[in-house]
Write a structure and sequence with these properties.
The chain has helices at residues 3-11, 15-38, 49-53, 74-89, 131-140, 144-159, 174-184, 187-194, 234-249, 266-275, 293-313, 357-364, 390-397, 418-424, 426-433, and strands spanning 44-48, 62-68, 92-95, 99-105, 108-116, 201-203, 216-220, 223-227, 279-286, 318-325, 329-336, 344-351, 373-375, 378-384, 413-415. The protein is α+β, with helices and mostly antiparallel strands. The strands form 4 sheets. Strands 1-2-5-4-3 form a 5-stranded mixed sheet, sandwiched between helices. The chain has a 4-stranded antiparallel sheet with strand order 10-11-9-15, sandwiched between helices. A hairpin with a 3-residue loop joins strand 3 and strand 4 (99-105). Helix 7 crosses helix 8 (187-194) and helix 10 runs parallel beside helix 15. It is elongated, with a radius of gyration of 27 Å. 30% of the residues are buried.
Length: 441
């Protein structure tokens, strides 16, 4: 039996479970329709997402859309949609391009989303209006065999930690997994093709739209103006390509079901850092209250990049960085070339023929110990370094460090104590010091 067949035996839900979730979706749809009818609200109810398409894995969510006529004002659409979610699924308001509710119904997580009904995707009024078209496309262009191939692709993506368009993953959405599998015809043919992908790969499963410059471009079969792969970061794309190559060399269940990594103990981490004389610094922020996870993840990446840039600018040189979001904190760990710099540094000046030479010489004329000199036709000077350690640099440069708008700069802690670094989050420091792909664990 092939690896793919073994995986399918595990991931394809039993017929009884499929029937149960399908019946529950139909029941919820009827309840929403009755709710709207009793209030004389003209709208259509449609089940969408992986349950409706028959591509769900274990523990599926139900996605129920309320489709309103285009002439309904947006505020009215939102008001009715939110109230329906509160009344029917005891929903909590969430926010994408416009508000929706998430709650539960008979043991299943439910998203109840208001949107506009359109005949085509030419003049959509919001991004979620496109979702019903996605469901219809997959249902129309797949049979049970192909839908199981799509399930394989989703499980593979989950296994290599590349599944999800959310900012913490920056990877492949469920719909993208379905589309690329449709494009190539099966899981294994997709893997073979993807093993040869490179940055800038373009796929047009139906029609090719306008030129788009992104790491991976997959034109949406229902709307060729849109790139289904816009959320895929170059690093995630690269990991997927490598995973495909490795899987073809040596197929293994580990690509679908990787083992959970056991982090190094604090004492082991400390020993590694001391042995290799590593420079590790951890930045900690309080987790913003009331902020949705997607925003926190996006702002975490922004903050990490900003700190890395500062470290590079002042000579500490960020070699690698990782981050995590916990229940109460955002943590970013950096390995740098050094955490302490010499007291002096070389400052480069202009060519001796440049008009700015006089300003450079005048600037340093006040200090008899910092005398400019000529090297390769340019002025240079050996000067006192502005900052010698990372906490001192960040303290002085704090205002110009671009952190997430929801982050409280005053809550920022810079952790350099070795014992605290090794105990604050062993999973994070293990990932920093010993990066491994999920299938390698």
């Amino acid at each position: 039996m092939s690896i793919e067949s073994e995986v399918l035996n595990i991931i394809v839900p039993p017929e009884e479970e499929c029937r149960k979730v399908t019946d529950t979706a139909k029941k919820l749809k009827s309840i929403v329709e009755k709710y709207l009818s009793e209030r004389n609200i003209q709208a259509e109810v449609k089940s969408v997402g992986s349950v409706a398409k028959g591509t769900f894995l274990d523990d599926p969510d139900l996605d129920m859309f309320i489709l309103f006529p285009e002439d309904v004002p947006k505020k009215e659409l939102e008001r009715i949609g939110i109230q329906a979610g509160r009344d029917i699924i005891n929903g909590e308001m969430m926010y994408a391009e416009h508000p929706y509710t998430t709650g539960s119904f008979e043991g299943y997580e439910v998203d109840l989303v208001p949107c506009y009904k359109h005949d085509t995707t030419e003049n959509l009024m919001s991004a979620v209006d496109r979702t019903p078209f996605h469901t219809d496309f997959i249902l129309k262009h797949s049979d049970e065999t192909l839908r199981n191939e799509m399930r394989l692709m989703k499980r593979f993506m989950k296994g290599i930690r590349a599944y999800g368009a959310e900012p913490n993953i920056r990877g492949f959405s469920g719909y993208l997994c379905e589309v690329i599998t449709y494009h190539y015809g099966s899981f294994i043919e997709t893997v073979k093709a993807a093993s040869k992908w490179k940055k800038g790969t373009v796929l047009a499963p139906v029609d090719k739209g306008p030129i788009i410059k992104e790491p991976l471009v997959v034109y949406d079969p229902v709307d060729s103006k849109r790139n289904v792969a816009s959320a895929v970061h170059l690093d995630t794309l690269s990991k997927f390509i490598i995973a495909c190559r490795e899987y073809l060399k040596s197929p293994s269940m580990k690509f679908f079901f990787p083992e959970k990594r056991t982090p190094y103990t604090p004492s082991q981490l400390k020993e590694m850092i001391i042995k290799d004389n590593l420079s590790i610094t951890v930045f900690s922020f309080d987790r913003p209250e009331g902020e949705i996870p997607e925003n926190i993840y996006a702002q975490t990446w922004k903050t990490q990049y900003s700190i890395s840039k500062k470290l590079d600018t002042f000579g500490f040189i960020s070699l690698r960085a990782v981050n995590t979001v916990t229940e109460d904190r955002i943590l970013m760990a950096f390995e740098t070339e050094t955490d302490t710099l010499p007291s002096l540094e070389k400052r480069d000046g202009p060519p001796i023929s440049a008009e700015s030479s006089d300003n450079f010489l005048r600037k340093w004329s006040h200090d008899m110990h910092k005398v400019p000199y000529i090297e390769d036709g340019c002025w240079h000077v050996i000067a006192d370094r502005a900052f010698r350690d990372i906490p001192g640099m960040i303290k002085r440069e704090k205002e110009s460090v671009s952190v997430g708008k929801a982050f409280d700069k005053e809550s920022m802690r810079i952790i350099t104590d070795l014992d605290e670094i090794c105990t604050i989050n062993p999973d994070l420091i293990t990932e920093l010091l010993d990066p491994k792909f999920p299938w390698e664990i």
